[in-house]
Amino acid sequence: MRQATRDAVRRASRRAMSRAVSQAGERSAARSRADEGFAMSSPVALMSAAAVVLAGVAYLVTDPEVTEPDQVALAAGPAPVERKVVMEAMEVEPTIKRGEIYVSVYNNSNITGLAGTTAQRIVTAGWQVVGSDNWYGTIPATTIYYPEQLKDAAMLLSKDLGIERVLPAVDPMLMDRLTLILTSDFA
């Protein structure tokens, strides 16, 4: 049925175009010099008009089943992608275990018992205090001294106590522990 309708439309459009072309040819041949002022449509314009008419007819005659929403093929969503996850072990610096780090506490101020009370505070924070005493010499401010291998532990102790001055250990300090020398600015 659809094929017969399409064939009929094609035949009708061919006839219309051939009529338009032949009429345009007859008119131009039959024209006399008296008709020179009369503007005649060109065959190209007539064919264009015929093509527009045929396109309108073809639009109206097309199969309505193709445009129905339930017949239109729906595009499927993207295919599920399986992502390959590779987990690699990262090197993590070892955490500082306060109880395994030795700390010596020294008082370099005129405040009696400053080293002992601070040592108790350090033990409460989880550090291992191995001694407290007086320091003889001049230290400008409360300082934590560390051997190179305990630098991270010294930074952690400085955070625990709120001490800003942290320096590498010097002789005669022992190189297996942190050395805390307190001055009157710490009290």
TrEMBL record:
Region called Disordered, residue ranges: 1-34
Pfam family, any one: LytR_C
Keyword Transmembrane helix: yes
Signal peptide: none
Biased composition range(s): Basic and acidic residues: 1-10
Keyword check for Membrane: yes
LytR/CpsA/Psr regulator C-terminal domain span: 101-186
Stretches that traverse the bilayer: 37-61
Keywords, ordered alphabetically: Membrane, Transmembrane, Transmembrane helix
Domain of life according to the entry: Bacteria
Protein name (record): LytR/CpsA/Psr regulator C-terminal domain-containing protein
